Amino acid sequence: MVVVGTAWLAGACGVPAGQSAPAFGGKGAILEPGPAAGAVEAKDAPTDPCASPAPASEDPRLDDFEDGDNRLFGGFEREGYWYSASDHTPESSVFPAEGKFEPSKLLAGEATVGNVFAAHFNAAGEKDWGATCGTTLRHVGAQAKCALNAGNFRGLRFRARGKGTVSLRFGMPETVSTEYGGRCIERCWDKHGIAIHLSDEWQQRDVYWEQLQQGGWGKSVHFDPKRLLDIEFMASPANLPADLWIDDLEWIVADAAK
After folding, report:
1. Does 190 reside within a domain?
2. pTM to 2 decimal places
3. Helix, coil or strand: residue 192
4. Domain count, the chain
5. Residue 99 burial class via C-beta count within 10 angstroms: exposed 0-12, middle 13-18, buried 19 and up
6. Which of 94, 92, 116 has the alpha carbon at shortest distance from 106?
7. Is residue 60 part of a domain?
8. Is residue 11 in a domain?
9. Dihedral of the CA atoms 172, 146, 227, 103 (nearest 10)?
10. What does the pLDDT look like over 126-147, one tens digit per residue?
11. Domain CATH code at residue 175
């Protein structure tokens, strides 16, 4: 197989150079929060404003891209920015270019009066860890920006179409490097995720927390939706070239689940 050359991509992810993250899917996540099985950065809980989960996010809407910018739909005390990144293999390509994310206009015949934009991501030629497109997730409190608490929800719903296979992944402090706002200091970036096999036709995709699992090459940690740092769609070298359109992202609420 949601890295980065700009400061606002604090939640972006990648796999350490020379180490490939396999595509994965199926059930396997452990939902009870618990400690990482490996080292994370030590923090003094009494002085760390992010030691406990932030207040639960209540607005399920994430982004329909109709505002035309790189920011998530705000929501109360919520912040997020879309990004793209690649492993910078010579002569490789990634769209949107790093640091220049903006929604793309839907193709002729797909757009409607109320639906003109979507996110479009494609990549080719990467040979190290691959390429990714995603958004950071933060709860903006009075003292600090902490991981977003999505514990009120059951998973992520979105529409997608394209070619190839990407991995939908969710970053937590224990899997994201300290350099990008996490707490991991070694064997980082093995996030919880699932493989998404794309179709030429737009399809609604529902991904539930219990379907997520790690790739198994990094630190083994418990998945906790109350502490999310990012969402990303990642293409590994084995799954390139990749072409992905996504739209209408929202959290799945209990009474909206199938």
Report:
1. yes
2. 0.81
3. strand
4. 1
5. middle
6. 116
7. yes
8. no
9. -70
10. 999 999 999 999 999 988 999 9
11. 2.60.120.430
